[in-house]
Amino acid sequence: MLLRRTGVVRGLSTVSKSNYGLATRLCHPKGKGKGDPYNASSPVLYQTATFELPGVMEGGEFDYTRSGNPTRQQLETQMADLEGAHRSFAFTSGMAALAVAMRLVPAGGHIVTGDDIYGGTSRLLANVAPASGVAVSNVDMCDREAVRRAITPHTKLVWMESPTNPRMQIVDIAAIATMARSAGAISMVDNSIMAPIFQQPLALGCDISMTSATKFISGHSDVTAGILSVASEELAKKVYFLQNAEGAGLSPFDCWLCLRGLKTMSLRMQRQQANCLAMALWLEKHPAVKRVHYAGLTSHPNYALHARQAAGGGSLLSFETGNVDLSRALSEHLKLFKVTVSFGSTSSLVSLPCFMSHASIPREVRQARGLPDDLVRLSAGIEDEKDLIEDLEQAMAKACSDVGLAVPAGTPHRR
Ligand SMILES: *Cc1c(COP(=O)(O)O)cnc(C)c1O
User: Fold this and answer.
1) Is 190 a catalytic residue?
2) What pLDDT digit, counting tens, does each position of 67-96 carry?
3) Distance from the CA of 402 to the center of ligand 1, in angstroms?
4) Which fold has domain 263-402?
């Protein structure tokens, strides 16, 4: 406004963002209000399928929303800025985005991925990829030599998750990206758990970063969406072609919801992370808990590696009790934690992955991959830390008594 009064007309899109931190860039988004004659403070929602053209022989910047829409373009521009990408693309869900990434591999090609991956990804790669003539190898991606051995001359894509879901294993992203590149393959990280606030795969040398915007970007469990961010013009062309040809681009209103979510994403993620660390420390001390998996705990076997490639432990943890009945009772006695799949919402969530998000992985495969049925996954929301810890305390006490487990009296449950 000040600048406007002094006669210097400039849109926020022309402000150099290089020195601003992520939280600042989220509140002052790149490309905001482009072409809006009224300077609306909130993004303009272009809820339209078609755009009138200047004439039958002339095209406009936009003609049909499947091919492009200004609200989607604003979300994609902002995501590209956050991810340090050449270009980003918004799809109707994380899986729709991942399906497009999978289709970058031609028939006869090969994908190397992890053995502790998101359930939907596991289903896509196990059941859909083979039908299009693409082979998939699942390996322990924490073992770099195993990845090296799995890469063949046909490998076109190396597909990582770090931390992995739900066991929170850490993969050496930069080392594997280099390995993929020297084998002539592209590399991708499914960055849904960290989002660009905590981890930026393109800066670590990857070609594609994927984020399920259903999680932290929307942040309020009110939309499904997925973003692919690519490092090169060549990949951007291929992904844009598929977005338009297959029609899974995100609808204008869902883009608008994501744009609203982005404004508070950094704030939410910092608070969720603080809550998650508090819960991890509490669980680690509890005698009924066998093992806590959380990337932000110094006891995590790959804590140092994670700290090198990411800016935080995030807000997702899992733990083992060694007893399915105890895990189930605990989950059901929690009052503030909703029994829900997904994560990254304002409210805390609890799930038993083997019976929920990862149920699509056959039981034998889950067992072979070391995914125990008693694993409990917690997603921290933005509630008050003390309420979450007290809720865990009461639920754990009830669950222990339900299954006849005596918790030693005087156990220091509180930090
Ligand atoms: C949720 C999730 C997906 C899928 O995203 P949707 O938006 O649910 O389709 C993919 N990968 C990971 C790691 C996820 O957590």
Assistant:
1) yes
2) 999 999 999 999 999 999 999 999 999 999
3) 34
4) Aspartate Aminotransferase, domain 1 (3.90.1150)
